[in-house]
Design brief:
Helix content: 25-40%
Shape: globular
Number of strands: 7
Structural class: alpha+beta
Number of helices: 5
Mean pLDDT: 93
Length: 172
């Protein structure tokens, strides 16, 4: 099996929207959100125009994760003013890492963390950070295993539901 990471092109925005909605719903379907909450979030975060603006932002980098040519996941990295929190110019944010259910595990996440760390170094960043839902135990264990530490909290809104995310960082 071959893994490949490719920058998402504007012409692939519909594919990005589809995998974003599918993977978010799968990840959080047991989180107590109503269909209205999901739809409100999808209409805000995964609107085609919103995604196109993100793809055009020079401080934001969105990638597809492909296996044998098939898109099985995606992730997004942000620097400077594209970060979802004002963490500072020494940081690179990993805003999203999502995989289709059949593509979770098997070293894929480590591949992305390694890629993010390399990108951070390439951009002269000394720290990476991300927010993770406080009840996502598998993700928390994964990030901790890869050297990220909890440094705080921030709010994440899905529709009308406001959750607490843990903010984690790693000094490179």
């Amino acid at each position: 099996m071959t893994f490949q990471i490719d920058s998402v092109k504007s012409s692939e925005v519909h594919k990005l929207r589809d995998i974003s909605i599918t993977t978010f719903r799968t990840t959080f379907e047991n989180g107590g959100y109503s269909e209205e909450d999901f739809n409100q979030y999808f209409n805000e975060a995964y609107d085609i125009d919103t995604l196109l603006k993100e793809l055009d932002n020079k401080h934001s980098f969105t990638y597809f994760f492909r296996e044998d040519g098939e898109v099985t996941g995606y992730f997004k990295l942000n620097i400077l003013d594209a970060q979802t929190e004002a963490m500072g110019e020494e940081y690179l944010e990993i805003q999203r890492i999502y995989f289709l259910p059949h593509a979770q595990g098997g070293g894929r996440g480590k591949y992305i963390i390694d890629f993010a760390e390399s990108k951070a170094k390439e951009l002269n960043k000394t720290k990476i950070w991300l927010g993770v839902w406080e009840y996502n135990e598998p993700a928390l264990k994964f990030y901790t295993k890869h050297g990220l530490k909890v440094i705080g909290r921030h709010e994440f809104q899905t529709g009308e539901v406001v959750d607490s995310d843990l903010v984690m960082e790693k000094i490179l």
